[in-house]
Amino acid sequence: MSADAIIVTGLYNTQEETLAAVKKIQEKGFEVTEVHSPIPSDALARALGRKKNRIGWFTLTGGIIGFFSGFALAVFTSTRWDLIVSGKPIISWIPFFVIAFEFTILFAVLGNVLGIVTQVGLPDPDYEKNYDPECSGSMYGIEVASTPEDADSLRDLLDHTGSIKKQRENL
Questions:
Q1: How far is residue 153 from each of residues 10, 25, 170, measured CA to CA in Å?
Q2: For residues 130 and 154, what is the distance between their CA atoms, to the nearest angstrom?
Q3: 84-133 pLDDT, tens digit each
Q4: pLDDT value at position 165?
Q5: Could you give the CA distance from residue 139 to residue 43 in angstroms, rounded to a whole number?
Q6: What is the pLDDT of residues 21-67, one digit of tens each?
Q7: Residues 10, 163: contact at Cβ < 8 Å?
Q8: From the centroid of its chain, how far is CA 110?
Q9: Which of 98, 73, 78 is nearest to 88 (CA)?
């Protein structure tokens, strides 16, 4: 998107209308910069050509690291201080699973947060600039980039695709 481009947002009632509008807009050569949806939609992500994110891999990696870190901490602390109680072994595996489980959860959450921050592009200070709050409830919104010369044809295209309302254009 160039520096002199403007963003026009069209609002739609259903996901089917939104998908049809995205296809028509892309066929006409306009750039769909964002689609706002009240629910997650794989169909909209596919229409925009978005790849599946890798946040789950961050969570899995964090969980595995946490599991082994929990076991390592428990083994290290019990071998460091030999507290023999009633002839029981110093390294008792069953209780160590509790610590490993807790570390698994902790590191999986931390890995998830790291994945979200690095893969989703958060924080984005300009996200709400073109966002319509109605997209959090029942509406779908399509943000389309255009040059100032093509803005009128874009507005007409949005009207023909069934857009019920347009937000103001942001320069």
A1: 13, 11, 16
A2: 16
A3: 778 778 888 888 999 999 999 999 999 999 999 888 877 677 766 767 77
A4: 63
A5: 16
A6: 999 989 988 888 888 888 888 888 888 888 888 999 999 999 999 99
A7: yes
A8: 16
A9: 78
